[in-house]
Amino acid sequence: MTEKNIGNVMYGWAKDLFPINRSLMGAGVRETFNYFKNIIPELEIKSVSTGYKAFDWTVPEEWEIEEAYIENKDGERIIDFKTNNLHVVGYSEPVDEWLNLDELENHLYSLPEQPDAIPYVTSYYKKRWGFCLSENQRRKLEPGDYHVVVKSSFKEGVLNYGEIILPGKSSKEVFLSSYVCHPSMANNELSGPVVTIALTNWIRTLQDRNYTYRIVLIPETLGSIIYLSKHLEELKEKVFAGFNITCIGDDRCYSYLPSREGNTLSDQIALHVLQHTAPNFKKYTWLDRGSDERQYCAPGVDLPMATIMRSKYGEYPEYHTSDDNLDLISPEGLEGGLNALKKAIEVIEHNAVLKSTVYCEPQLGKRGLYPTVSVKGSANEARRMMNLISYCDGEHSLLQIANKINAPIWDLYAIVDKLVENKVIKVL
Amino acid sequence: MTEKNIGNVMYGWAKDLFPINRSLMGAGVRETFNYFKNIIPELEIKSVSTGYKAFDWTVPEEWEIEEAYIENKDGERIIDFKTNNLHVVGYSEPVDEWLNLDELENHLYSLPEQPDAIPYVTSYYKKRWGFCLSENQRRKLEPGDYHVVVKSSFKEGVLNYGEIILPGKSSKEVFLSSYVCHPSMANNELSGPVVTIALTNWIRTLQDRNYTYRIVLIPETLGSIIYLSKHLEELKEKVFAGFNITCIGDDRCYSYLPSREGNTLSDQIALHVLQHTAPNFKKYTWLDRGSDERQYCAPGVDLPMATIMRSKYGEYPEYHTSDDNLDLISPEGLEGGLNALKKAIEVIEHNAVLKSTVYCEPQLGKRGLYPTVSVKGSANEARRMMNLISYCDGEHSLLQIANKINAPIWDLYAIVDKLVENKVIKVL
Amino acid sequence: MTEKNIGNVMYGWAKDLFPINRSLMGAGVRETFNYFKNIIPELEIKSVSTGYKAFDWTVPEEWEIEEAYIENKDGERIIDFKTNNLHVVGYSEPVDEWLNLDELENHLYSLPEQPDAIPYVTSYYKKRWGFCLSENQRRKLEPGDYHVVVKSSFKEGVLNYGEIILPGKSSKEVFLSSYVCHPSMANNELSGPVVTIALTNWIRTLQDRNYTYRIVLIPETLGSIIYLSKHLEELKEKVFAGFNITCIGDDRCYSYLPSREGNTLSDQIALHVLQHTAPNFKKYTWLDRGSDERQYCAPGVDLPMATIMRSKYGEYPEYHTSDDNLDLISPEGLEGGLNALKKAIEVIEHNAVLKSTVYCEPQLGKRGLYPTVSVKGSANEARRMMNLISYCDGEHSLLQIANKINAPIWDLYAIVDKLVENKVIKVL
């Protein structure tokens, strides 16, 4: 893997992982984690058992599914889990019955307004069975009897999640979270873990990381609740910035969803990165939330987590249907999302509070940093440097300064290095 | 009286009270208070005597008026207090003289731009006499001599005011104030006390009131100053919300006038109620003030008093003229004003600070509060409930939460009850 | 000098001073200071020597220039310092050489886009020589040899600056600073010191000044850095408001440049004065800075200095060229700038915190301050007075009150005097 074609690499991972039948728990999830462990050896695959209590929630049984189909009177399998794992409602209980069409209808899910798409449906906490199919498939069903078969079973098992800790100079932590629990869908969800893994790989290469990185891959909702129930105090103490990584693989737009109050460092960073790289990005509010920020930013939890996305869950028509497939995401889409997150991590690593070492403006000319002849306009080039210095008061962070002087923060990194080297400013 | 036709009931009270010649002090005020005492037995009619000093002010003598008229040479009473009590300047001193028209002009008040209206004029603190008449009446006056008679007298007496205390579970108080001191005018002033009395009657019916209600009917300005001079420390200690009730009987618009800094709970409530029930309401500023908020929100007093009105004093053409009569107000206008204040009181009673009982989102599904099957869009109905819970952090009040989630607070009362009952949140 | 024709007087000073060859240090500066000392005897002319270290800076040698010219082969002086002192680069080292045109070009400065203007160029801290000429002059230079002569010298000397302290009742200080270091240019710079001197003269006439005034005339940048290096602690302790005075002589517009955070009393005053006298004024930001506020508002210095200008340095085409001459400024332009600063000083002197002496509204009628008859609209005249009183809560300054009630503060001075005299309010 080279950084150069990282978009294609990520797309390749997504392609490999797409067919696996992931769910809240079970074999599909483990297969996915094993795939990632081959890329990131530091990935630890952990588990909690059925019955484990996390705050208000309890880990259910594992669901195993062997096959599921609907047969017509002629013995033709007109709907088959094997052709698309979205065809069966997640956590469907076993069934083997003949039903007439009217009875069957109660167990069918389709989308009248998206007649070609198979919807994604689950029922984790209440036992039922059901089939999902396209509206067009449904319309073709003729009155008569159908043989419905779901060969599934429930058993005591484990809920798996992955954790990676990449230590840095400080024990203060940056927290990255993505989820693994959806079957064959691409933007939501495969783009999330795939970009997270690429980002983790890149973080591993950062020399002299200032901060420790904690990266988790968990099943959405229940997984983040479990992780919080095990690590809440530690996370509250250590985490000063973080991102939930989801829906980051198509190339239609960039999106931002805030933390609960929208005022954390992570929010400021997400906004800065998107304003300077994708100024037409879509800005959502806390009321538009729908992923694990619901847990990470819940009252009393309040981790500083913001979300940078491409097309946001719930906002694009293919969401939670069979149309959210490998055609929807692209190497460019994945790479754009990865780059935004890399820029965000770079901001975190560079965002020091700076202080001028002298009163008044330093004489930059004698250090070769300022034109020695004063002609109309001659100082324009040094202007950004002077603007930066003018806010090095020991109170503003570099990100705040960048916002004050209307500059992308990454344009300031080299200037800061030069000024620190020349002892004109220092890092507090 | 039933709640159903409360608009008509209030209008009936206004009709009964309209003819009475109220003033700063005196018999008309007492007659008005006695009328209200028949409706609200808890109303206590209190008094302070002539000469009583309240801060910078002193209670003047009572003014009694027997008759007042202008007669022409033919002995015809061309202006007569009996036909409209606005015809004489309030607190006019006695006079019995023949004057020529030029001399008379100095004592006449009319409104050239509203030629049909008799203006309302008073001179409480400086002795003078005068007649108010329509511009059309004035134009008909021919040169010649006129006999002017005011049979009035001043005497040591009392300034009356009414007070009602309706105790609640807490000794913390909601303060409601309206005024009784204007003669025959309807929107300003009869709508104020009439709606206040209806509101008081409704508050009496509230089971398990959380708060104590202090309701006063006082003459404007001097009355509120006297009441404050007697109760300032008590009011500052107990009152956490309140409304000045005035100009609340026509049905042209709704209006809001803030407290001095505009940031009290009462301001927030008034804005919330009007934004969600009459979004085109008119928003005035402190510089537009003109009623008893001038005293209640004065420096060092600073009670949290805001004002919800229909057409605001000084802003409608009929204000302080004979055109502010029973045609200007209506049962619907009065009822709309009453309802806005009732909604405001309900907000006060419901505005608790809420706290989630669990970390992370509660599992509402197991409590029957959330769909057990996850289909695209299935959570929409529970969305408002989830939004509410997401702000139950022990710091936001229900009103703040309603504003955060763009919901009318009254739509949340039942949800809060259900969540408290299910022990998902608790009231702090 | 009378106040009446102060515009002409200032213009006369500028005319007298225009020809002098000022620079960072030297005879021209001293001549200018001596001229001002004749007007303001309190002006003390101070000095620091070559080699003096001020924070990051060191005072260079004095530069003396006898003559400078370019001669062509025919012995004609085609460029001569005597005709315009902008023709030689400030601090040019001596030279006496024959050069061909190509070699000469490296030492020439002109402005292609302003072909008639001679630019103003300096090189204080690096030894070089050069000539400035109009683009039109430059285009006429034919290939061939030229005799370039700069008879200049450098010597240990002094950097001069002027200081005036005008004591007031309080030792708290208002700090005014302007600069003296530019050769023959009018808006930038002569308007600055000329208006400062007229302003100082006017401050001297203020009876019972509340505050002490510290006024300095220094060479820009190095002068303010030196002054700060000598007085930093004193200035930080005493100065509560101040203005940098520059570019205040033309009559095209008014301009405002803020302090670093833009929130000091001086900023509020500058904004108030300009909003009420020149509402179309141009509002710049800290990023547009370019004069001594760069030092006065530097991190750790943070004096409360704002800038009121006419056409701002760097923003008008004639800036730093020979076109910034006596035609650009005018008596009206200078007087307008002076008046804005006088109004600003008056605000400082009047800006007390006020407190009502009574609870509730005072009864102004008994003091003859309010109409005794209450007719519709009769209180309008007293409205501003009542508005003012309503904010006399011991927390708002008069400037804050003026902003709250949308009044020019100078319209309130007489009202405050009347209310204080009537003991209705008091000054805290």
What does this structure look like?
Three copies of one chain form a homotrimer. With 428 residues, chain A is an alpha/beta fold. Chain A has three domains: 3-60 and 159-350, Aminopeptidase; 71-155, Domain of unknown function DUF2172 (Glucose Oxidase, domain 1); 353-427, Winged helix-like DNA-binding domain superfamily/Winged helix DNA-binding domain (Arc Repressor Mutant, subunit A), CATH 1.10.10.10. Chain A has twelve helices and 19 strands. In chain A, the strands form five sheets. Chain A has an eight-stranded mixed beta sheet, with helices on both faces. In chain A, α5 links the parallel β11 and β12 (212-218). In chain A, α1 (6-17) packs across α5 (186-205) and α1 (6-17) crosses α9. The first copy, chain A, is elongated, with a radius of gyration of 26 Å. Chains in contact: A-B, A-C, B-C. Chain A binds chain C through residues 355-356, 358-363, 365-366, 372-376, 386-387, 390-394, 404-406, and chain C through 54-57, 89, 109, 111, 119-126, 128, 130, 221, 224-225, 228-229, 232, 260, 286-287, 289, 294-295, 298-302, 319-321.
Oligomer: homotrimer
Shape of chain A: elongated
Radius of gyration of chain A: 26 Å
* Strand numbers in spatial order across the main sheet of chain A: 1-10-12-11-13-16-14-15
Biggest beta sheet attributes of chain A = 8 strands, mixed
Question: Any low-confidence stretches of chain A, pLDDT <50, length ≥5?
Answer: none
Specify the CATH homologous superfamily of the largest domain in chain A: Zn peptidases
Structural class of chain A: alpha/beta
Number of helices of chain A: 12
**CATH topology-level fold name of the largest domain in chain A:** Aminopeptidase
Please tally the β strands of chain A and state the result: 19
Measured by residues with Cβ under 8 Å of the partner chain's Cβ, the largest interface is: A-C, 25 and 37 residues
The domain tally of chain A reads 3
What do the pLDDT scores of chain A average to? 96
- The first-to-last residue Cα distance of chain A is 38 Å
CATH architecture of the largest domain in chain A: 3-Layer(aba) Sandwich
CATH class of the largest domain in chain A: Alpha Beta
Helix content of chain A: 25-40%
